[in-house]
Amino acid sequence: MKPVATQNGDEVVVITHEDIDRAHDRVRVSAARAQRGFSSKARLLWLLVGPGVLVMLGENDGPSMLAYAATGAKFGIGFFIPFVVLTFCMAIVVQEMTVRLGAATHRGHAELIFDRFGPFWGWFSMIDLGVGNFLTLITEFIAIRAGLGFFGVRPWIAILIALVILYAALMSHRYWTWERITLAAAAFNLVFIPVALMTHPSWHSVGRAFITWQPLPGFNKDTLLILLANIGATVTPWMLFFQQSATVDKGMTTKDIRFGRADTVIGATLATAAAIATILATAPLFAHQMTADNFQAAEFAQALQPLIGRFGASLFALGMVEAGIVAAITISTSSAYAYGEVTHKPHSLNVPMGEGKSFYAVLTLCAMAAAAIVLVPGLPLVYVVLLVNVVAVLAMPPALVFLFMLVNDKEIMGDLVSPLWANILSTGVVFVLTAAGIFFGISIIAPNIFAALGGK
Amino acid sequence: MMTKRIDNTPPTISSADESLVLSSLEHDQLVGAKKHHIPRRHLNRPELIVLWSLRIYLLFMMAVVAYQVWIAAH
Questions:
Q1: Does residue A385 belong to any structural domain of this protein?
Q2: Residues of A in Cβ contact (< 8 Å) with B26
Q3: A48 in a domain, yes or no?
Q4: Are A445 and B64 a contacting pair at CB < 8 A?
Q5: What domain count does chain A have?
Q6: What ipTM does the predicted assembly reach?
Q7: Which of A171, A369, B57, B72 is deepest in the core (most CB within 10 A)?
């Protein structure tokens, strides 16, 4: 469809296919908003949820679920149960800012960084995003391969299935359809809840852990790695870029910010439930004193099989596959959004394939390259899985500072700049992440310090 | 409101679509409006110090991660 130029008052504006698709979505939102009553509010929420739920469940990805599984198997029910809730609270604080930025400016995160801070700082943040996204994408395909491997599916077939699903979600060339397909797939993240129930967790211990944050883990290098992996499982740079771009692509405006916040909180709540369920699901391995060091991805499913049966173990393995597929879709989309925003080429899921060749090419090529690496025999994939969440935590403070500066920029945000309490909270998040990174560095460079402090 | 073609091919966007877009989307939401760059802002000295500090922190920590991978691989 060719764009046409329309003279609107004194200004000539170009209307594209993308605008028309977005306008159709906005008409439905306006119609729901015009009505009163509970059902219309519920419909409005249904129309406006999406980016927040997708980003939170998307972040419950392969390495994240592996980190939660390792947490349960290594430490059982204790400190990490409330800690995971805290990390998702941090994620809500951070992600809410991207909703406001997207709704107020109608620009993606990469585009704003380039425009406001210039290409020098823009390229730094793009390199952080690109490297982090690519490493994470590799781990998603590792999770998919391992999860389907539990059912005897060959690696190349598993990878092919994942790529077909990713491509199928794109084929609609409509943001709305893509979002609903991906949301439906993301709902399977909750499969970890029935698995947790099958292990008959001690609810008394869960309640005590929430109240007392105990038992505390020993203060050593392993604990610190799991701590960072758990933080990296909830707050990562791609989430900032994805949610802001998706908010813009969805067409959300400042009137929708309240629902954007609700969307983020709903997503965080669902993701927290799935994360805690994964810890609870693997906690029996800790109780049976089975070491978690040798487990990777779906090997947790094999380890759980004697405890919860074949059906429960299959659900766990399927959960790993889902985590990998949804994250592969959302992360590759965030890379494509950022590329399009920086190069000022069409970057929307509403764009037809012919008009958005570069957008769809980046999206699929990123996924295909990561998938191909997973199939190369003999590569040390375990290191990538273990370190990808750590790298995410380390890259987060610079990304957060850009976000912090943008969301407090009165010229672009107007009255929607962050209130004092939000600034205090986000500054706290930056300090926590930086401190966690520094402790991690110390644990690598001078591991004996932890022994001196009473650790192992 | 006037409509004009921007090339010689027949327009395939109907006037109904045009009015739908103009009535449903905010001006800043239009793809055409996004071709205009948002003006760059000046970074003051404290902001530059923070940005450079975090950049150095990140590069240093990446070296630490690479070192850890090297140790683990050997």
A1: yes
A2: 106, 253
A3: no
A4: yes
A5: 1
A6: 0.83
A7: B57
